[in-house]
Amino acid sequence: MKQRTMTLPAALLLLAALIAGCASVTKLGTQLGQGSGAITEEQATSINRSAEALEKTFADITPEQEYYIGRAVAATILQTYPAADEPAANAYLNELGQSLAMASDRPQTFGGYHFLLLDSDEVNAFAAPGGLVLVTRGLVRCCESEDALAAVLAHEIGHVQAKHGLRAIKKSRLTSALAILTVEAARNLGDEDLKQLTADFEGSIMDVTQTLVNNGYARGLEKEADEASLAILGRVGYDPRALVVMLVKMGERVKSGGPGFGKTHPSPGDRIGALDPSLANKPVMADPAARRARFTRAVGDV
Amino acid sequence: MRTMRRSLLLVAVLVVGVAAWAAVQQMSVQVRAGQLRATPSYLGKVAASVAYGDRLTVVQKQGAWYSVKDARGRSGWIHESALTTKRVVLKSGSTDVAAGAGGDEIALAGKGFNEQVEGEYKAQNADADYAWVDRMEAMVVAPEQAVAFLAAGEVVAKGGAQ
Predict the structure, then answer these.
(1) Is B53 within 8 Å of B109 (Cβ atoms)?
(2) Is the separation of the CB atoms in B16 and A32 below 8 Å?
């Protein structure tokens, strides 16, 4: 009887506090769990601690911060891989890319998706965080149709939607940057804080750029991006098999261990092997004349 | 004793349920330009645009889409990627921030990696090609333009657009 008179008002108090919006849901849940004897105090502490620790990962970077990281990563890559100033090709890449991005699992990023052709023969593409996608001439040449180019862009969109670039940032930098952010919540930053934050920013750009240009992602993440590509192609109405066709073509052009995808990606053959085998049984979709004509017009001779 | 335990459990479930409900009733726009659409689909017509930090009241959810109403009474469907359960605070030192205790429930707009930090980075990395990044960002394809692009290429979504 005593338990009831103690716990009910306590629960109602918590309910009131919650409606007033001044307690975190995780903590409330664990307090309640303890109150009703479902979990021990030790378990509750552990749950709360791990909830707090989880918050200091790449997932805690806001879309706005991701936007500034992405801009810097793209600006840095463009130092080595210059942009191709070709309005028709770039306009086409953006129309196609936007049509795919809006059907992705993450159609809205802070600054939106934008696509750019790079003036390089190397077979390569880079997805900077937030949706700045860079594709080389060399990679576009591996595509024999709009559907194949769609497969390439959708793969890059897959990296953006899953925030693969942000995962490359070292945890220590995030922890440092987020600690400064807590200070910043209360007042404007002093010189020292700004210096530290800029150092964390530079380090983060280096982490992401190194991964995109030199180290590549883990195989699992590439598989995830290929699967995202298939899903997006299917939703929009492009031929998912075009990804395989493109990979076969890429296999003829890329040397394992060579520059670009040869260095940063699993071999095209391995990537095909990792795809859903039922893909091979799907009928090849038509490539209408209007689609073929505009593809040839825009990127036929990149 | 058993009924007592059961009623306690009921209260607990109720409170946690209310917690989840209270947390999602109001959401904030976390992107620069959020799109309110007439239907819960990427092919839905864009009816209005909402800005970073706008608070939206959730009416219902369907898949990845929220039916919402903004402070001006405009309503529509918006994709979950445009929203956060956190309150987006546009100014530092405000009372919202003080009440936020630790920042779990709030997101600070314009703080952390921001324009100022980008300026510092640019100063130290003069070769970084921000000019092309800006040109790239100026290449904007409106949703209706993308829909027209797909139609012109006879790209037809099967099984309905989600």
Answers:
(1) yes
(2) yes
How far is Cα A47 from Cα A70, in angstroms, rounded to an integer?
33
The model's pTM is 0.82
Question: What mean pLDDT comes out for the span A235-264?
Answer: 94
Tell me the percentage of chain A whose pLDDT exceeds 70.
80
Q: Output the CA–CA distances (angstroms, integers) from residue B83 to A201, A212, A251, B28, B148, in the order listed.
A: 25, 28, 40, 6, 27
The values of phi and psi at residue B77, to 5°, are -105, 135
Structure tokens at A42: 């030790």
DSSP type of residue B160: -
For residue B113, give the nearest of A21, A65, A97 by CB distance.
Answer: A65
Nearest CB partner across the interface for A288, out of B19, B141, B154? B154
Give the C-alpha separation, B148 to A175, whole Å.
45
Beta strands B87-89; B106-108: pairing state = parallel
Q: What DSSP string describes B60-91?
A: EEETTEEEEEETTS-EEEEEGGGEESSEEE-S
CA distance B147 to chain A (A): 7
Q: Residue A210 forms beta bridges with which residues?
A: none
* Both tokens assigned to B152: 């012109």
Dist. CA A274–CA A227, nearest whole Å: 9
Q: Which value does ipTM take for this structure?
A: 0.82
Tell me which amino acid residue B134 is: D
pLDDT tens column, B79-98: 999 999 999 987 655 544 44
- Displacement of CA A299 from its chain's centroid (Å): 26
Whether B114 sits inside 8 A of A71 (CB atoms) is no
